[in-house]
Amino acid sequence: MAFDIDQYTNNSVGVTWTDLDFSVFETDPLPESSLRTLRYMCDIEYHTVCYLRDLLTTPSHNEPEVGAFMTMWNREEFWHGEALAAVLAVHGVTVDFDELKATRLKLGWKDRLDPIKQSVMGGLVGNDFVAVHMAWGAANEWSANAAYQRMAVLEGNPVLGELLRRIARQETRHVAFYASQARDRLKSSAKARKIARFALSRFWGPVGSGVMDDSEVTHVMNHLFAGSEGRKLVRDIDSHIANLPGMTGLTIVEDSLEARGIAA
Ligand SMILES: [Fe+2]
Ligand SMILES: [Fe+2]
Questions:
Q1: Which residue has the higher pLDDT, 54 or 43?
Q2: What range does the domain containing 228 cover?
């Protein structure tokens, strides 16, 4: 089914959480390793703003539907960051958006550029660039959705579970946009299929790698995806990616787990 961008932009709202009683964490705090994972997720959600700034210089910005989507998408991700920051705040962990943004922007353009952009900016224009960007985004959103759903299951706390499921539902809509765009655009261009496959297999890494410390990436991967149940979820993500035109047989997420030595 085609993604209805008008409906999406009309209905886009921040994830609601003020109805959730975060004071439960005062008597029943989350364990240290969960806070570490939430801190990572919060940081990455907030980082979307920096990422978007880079993308505004790419051909994707000139595509009306993609541009409209990214504006709302960016806001939704920011609100995910805010909700997670509120949970962390009850635990005495402060994640300050302005501070984080200032630090990241100070790193300069070059360091923050996504490998996708470094690898393809040179030769790719128009539909072909956007196709690669959309395939990359789809892989990331599938991962985000799986991560939130998995954490909701792993973490027994019902308040946290409800918040994470609400966030995951919005990630599902992000998946729908990126995947439908990627499908259509890859289908129409052999060049885009070839470069998307190359970029994903060569450069893709778990969301947040390249931004966060490597030890944090490994912690989150271990926390959420170690063991047979985690591995099964990771294979599901890979099978979605492999279903995109020209991506048959790719196992980039599982490969990244293995590269980090995370046991099935
Ligand atoms: Fe998000
Ligand atoms: Fe998302």
A1: 43
A2: 29-110+124-259
* In a domain? residue 202: yes
How far does the centroid of ligand 1 lie from the alpha carbon of residue 15, in Å? 10
Average pLDDT over residues 235-242: 98
Structural domain contains residue 136: yes
What pLDDT, on the 0 to 100 scale, is given for residue 121? 58
Ligand 1 centroid to Cα of residue 220, in Å, is: 15
How many A from CA of 169 to the centre of ligand 1? Answer: 10
Model confidence pLDDT, tens digit, residues 144-201: 999 999 999 999 899 999 999 999 999 999 999 999 999 999 999 999 999 899 989 9
CB 97 within 8 A of CB 85: yes
Residue-wise pLDDT tens digits, 73-85: 999 999 999 999 9
Per-residue confidence (pLDDT) for residue 58, from 0 to 100: 75
- In angstroms, the CA 139 to CA 134 distance is 9
Which of helix, strand or coil describes residue 212?
strand
CATH code of the domain in which 164 resides? 1.10.620.20
Query: Is residue 208, in this structure, part of any structural domain at all?
Result: yes
C-alpha span between 158 and 1 (Å, rounded): 33
Count structural domains, the chain: 1
- Determine, yes or no, domain membership for 205: yes
Question: Is 60 exceeded by the pLDDT of residue 91?
Answer: yes
CA of 207 to the centre of ligand 1 (A): 11
